[in-house]
Amino acid sequence: MCKKILLSGVLAAGVAVLLAGTSAMSYLTTSCERVAQSVEDSVPLEFQIDRARKMVRDLEPEIRRSMHVIAKEEVEVEQLNHRLEAGDSRAHQEKSEIMRLQSDLQTGQSVFRYAGHEYTSREVEQDLARRFARYKTSDATLGSLRDMRAARQRNLDAAREKLAAMMSAQRQLLVEVENLEAQLKLVEVAQASSDIVLDDSQLARAKSLMAEIRAKLDVAAKLAHADTNFHDEIPLQNPAPENILDQVTEYFGVSQAAGSTLATINLTD
Fold first, then answer.
1. Helix (H, G, I), strand (E, B), or coil: what is residue 118?
2. Residues 83, 145 contacting (CB under 8 angstroms)
């Protein structure tokens, strides 16, 4: 009974440690991810664009390696073509000789003469059998070479397409990097324009001073009118009526007698 209790306690402790370790690992990985994201966000955009440009340019070695592999494969395919051409020519010659021996044997002769030498029908038949066996082996070999050439040609075509796609993608990425750099420059210009601060405090002070001067002039004008219109006592007499003759005389700067003579002359005329 004691052993069972002890074993249960050990198992429970082990599970607790395992769970605690799992939680700690989760906290640790989450913290690492957040730190990595924070570091990445703090990297300047100029640095990231330069990094992208370098990554695109680093494709050059892979492109050159692919071009080397393609060139090597092209040489291999060309050599296979030469072997097949030579094999086809040889097979054509061997087939022609086999058909000649077969035709000669079908005549039923017992002796045959080739290149100044005589051969019995048995010897010709044996030679025909050897030639035919060799021809079948050569023909099978040519068939394998044709299959090999077809497979290598397919691989070569696929490699060419892959290289063309890689080169096109590299050019497109370079254009996109240049576009990103141009957008960054535009954002920098916009930010620089918004950061420009013009000191208009002097203009504001000048406007304020002019407003003060205008206010003082208005006050002075009111005071001037107040000096002429202000009376310390209530006027009890009506003002004397204005004399029109005096006004005309004062306006034209002539005496009353001269004015009367001038008026008489004008009326007489």
1. strand
2. yes
Tokens representing 111?
A: 């002796």
pTM: 0.49
Cβ partners under 8 Å of residue 127, min gap 6? 101, 119
Question: For 178, which DSSP code?
Answer: H
The boundaries of the domain holding residue 97 are: 48-174
Q: Evaluate whether residue 142 is within a structural domain.
A: yes
Are 132 and 98 in contact, with CB atoms under 8 Å apart? Answer: yes
- Asked whether residue 231 is assigned to any structural domain, the reply reads no
CATH number for the domain spanning 109: value is: 1.10.287
Q: What letter does residue 238 receive in the DSSP assignment?
A: P
In-domain check, residue 103: yes
For 118-177, the pLDDT digits (tens) are: 999 999 999 999 999 999 999 999 999 999 999 999 999 999 999 999 999 888 988 888
Q: What's the Cα-to-Cα distance from 156 to each of 65, 72, 191, rounded to whole Å?
A: 14, 10, 52
d(CA 149, CA 74): 11
d(CA 248, CA 254) in angstroms, rounded, equals 8
Helix 121-195 / helix 45-57 crossing angle, nearest 10 deg: 170
- Domain total of the chain: 1
